[in-house]
Amino acid sequence: MADFLLEIFSEEIPARMQKQAAADLARLVGDALKAGGLEAKTLETAVGPRRVVLSATGLPKAQPDTTEERKGPQVGAPEQAIQGFLKAAGLKSLDDAEKREMPKGVFYFAVTKKPGRPTADVVKDIVEAALQQLPWPKSMRWASNPTRWVRPLHGIICVLDGKVVPVAFAGVTAAATTRGHRFLSPAFIAVKDFADYKAKLRKAFVIIDPAERAEIITTTLKKLAAAEGLTVKDDPGLVAEVTGLVEWPVPLLGTIDAKFMDVPAEVLTSAMRKHQKYFALTTKDGKLSNRFGVIANMVTPDKGKEIIAGNEKVLRPRLSDAKFFWDQDKKKSLADRLPKLEERVFQAKLGTVRAKVERLVALAAYLAQPLKADAAGAQRAALLCKADLSTEMVGEFPDLQGIMGHYYALHEGEQPDVALAIAEHYSPLGPNDSCPSAPLSVIVSLADKVDSLMGFFAINEKPTGSKDPYALRRAALGVIRIVLENNLRLPLLEVFRFALGTFGSLVPDNGRDKVAREVLDFFADRLKAHLRDKGVRHDLVSAVFALGDEDDLVRLMARVEALAAFVASDDGANLLVAYRRAANIVRIEEKKDDAAYKGDVPAADLGAAEGADLLSALKAAEDTATDALAAEDFTRAMSALATLRKPVDSFFDKVKVNADDPAQRAARLRLLSKIEAAMNRVADFSKIEG
Fold first, then answer.
1. Alpha-carbon gap, residue 635 to 457, rounded angstroms
2. pLDDT of residue 1
3. Hey, which end of the chain has fewer CB within 10 Å, N or C?
4. Same-domain pairing of 51 and 74
5. 369 and 513, same domain (yes or no)
């Protein structure tokens, strides 16, 4: 068995591309090895700023030998056919062929044994093909080389069983040498295998394992911060990015000048993160500290003092710009910025951001009624929620939209709940983001998302497959989470129709119901996906949605929960079986007779005590279920249905549905139809699987 090492050494690879590049290289090489009969025992990758590494163990010395068979003509065939077969098979005479008894006679067969190729030869072809196929998001050419790669290549290691495989790519031929840290150990390093490679690179100040580099960054930063009574703000995305920027991480702490500390914490954090890749530190009470974390890629005799000073110096102009934007933006009120929103197009067919704001104001006032909130406050928050888009600060830091509006609103003396609604109206931004709970925040967030959903569905810009350019799935999930997590009793169809009305002639009166129901169906799919992650069966959601016009998500969830408990019980499971049996019998007989078995069931026509008992039990269950549904007591409604189990079982055990007497048969089929109808008032049981 042989071990294999591949390293592609280049100029700095963008951090965001490194992880996928390593995975793609492993896939391309691993699949090709397996297809060539050289499946590796283990396959391991590593990646860093200047190198992508692949290691394989347990490769055979050569491919397995193979045998190819070619069927020839029948014995006694014409000479021309014989000669054609010999030539095609590469045989000198029929003495080299085999004769085999087949069902239709004796035939010639050419059997060729092919020895497996040496692994080194196969690996060369595989690696060169993989490097050509590696799908970088962006690539480049350099010098006169026609080959494209993410960055200019400097070297390739390709070693199999201690010997160099002469892979050639982009003008570079493989060797058994690499380089260490660009400044701390730039000399060439000769390597033999993966273990030797890792050990020598570590001595040359390169840690090839990104997980180890990330652990050093997080652990050391935490220790440095804890020594000063501080905490590192959790930022896994920044850790991942910085991990891809350094080969030898050296965490250090710097200091923010005091003159910048009156700028909002989010601004300082965003400026440090976006431009400098610095980590924010917080005090015990959660406030932003004047200290920040920086990850050097260098070891210095002064233990990083000069590096810290340099980073502090670089940070000052960044924060000076942020402070300038902060001071300048405060000179103009949010209300005065509204006209500038006329210059921003929300969507070509849906108008400007200013037009969207007007729709949000109307929708916020409408939502304030059922949610029993301050309508004037909701309208004010809706009016100002997008105004910060025209500020210098948001122009420089788009991720602060809403947040800066909150700060500017407080500075101008707006009510705190209005300012909070401006900050939170984009939330939740994802499945892990928290939902707003303050009344005005809830209203403006709902208005913003509902407006986008209605507008884009109205112009037929719906999500398709994996494409969702306007993030409508996220908007729908946001509405669902806000409604459910705040237990809001909100008739969504009415809200949708009202929202569509705010678009004026874009959506005619007679088209609003169609669009509203399309969006409600879209919500059903999103709700299924949301609940599936929580372990709720999607078919139960479908069974409730199938009732039609169920647009109160809180009530819907109460139905789903009661239905889940019902079908999980013995009575519910058995009654579901009986329901399907009843529905199938009725469907078959109606089709056969070309008739509908609906309407009243004369007890006298049933002709069996079990039928009369079931009819009586059915009426009692329907009465109880009707009262329970009116009171939204869905558990009691399900319990009423559960009482039908015994009389239904008894009916099927002892009564022949297709009786010889036509009147009895019709009455019994109507009885089964009534079972189906009674159960479908609670949920459409035909949608339930299993």
1. 36
2. 84
3. C
4. no
5. yes
Do residues 193 and 39 lie in contact, with contact meaning Cβ atoms separated by under 8 Å? no
Give yes or no: residues 294 and 228 share one domain.
Answer: yes
Which CB contacts under 8 angstroms, 24+ apart, belong to 461-468? 461/347, 462/518, 462/522
Residue type, 681: R
Residue 289: its H or E element: strand 288-296
504 Cβ neighbours under 8 A, 6+ residues apart: none
Counted domains in the chain: 5
3-state secondary structure of 555: helix
The pLDDT of residue 682: 86
Torsion 631-636-641-644 (CA) sign: negative
Instruction: For residue range 365-377, list pLDDT tens digits in order.
Output: 999 999 999 999 9
Angle 254-258-260 from CA coordinates, rounded to 5°: 95
| Residues 225-251 pLDDT 10s | 999 999 999 999 999 999 999 999 999
Output phi, psi for 107, to 5 deg. Answer: -125, 155
Residues 123 and 261 in one domain: no
Question: Which residues have CB under 8 Å from 398's CB, separation 6+?
Answer: none
The answer to whether residue 549 sits within a structural domain is no
Q: Are strands 279-282 and 288-296 parallel, antiparallel or unpaired?
A: antiparallel
How deeply is 425 buried, as exposed, middle or buried, from its count of CB atoms within 10 A (0-12, 13-18, 19+)? buried
CA-to-CA distance for 487 and 554, rounded, in angstroms?
Answer: 6
DSSP-derived pairing of the beta strands 288-296 and 250-255: antiparallel
Instruction: Name residue 546's amino acid.
Output: A
Residue (of 505, 508, 623, 643) closest to 571 by Cα position: 643
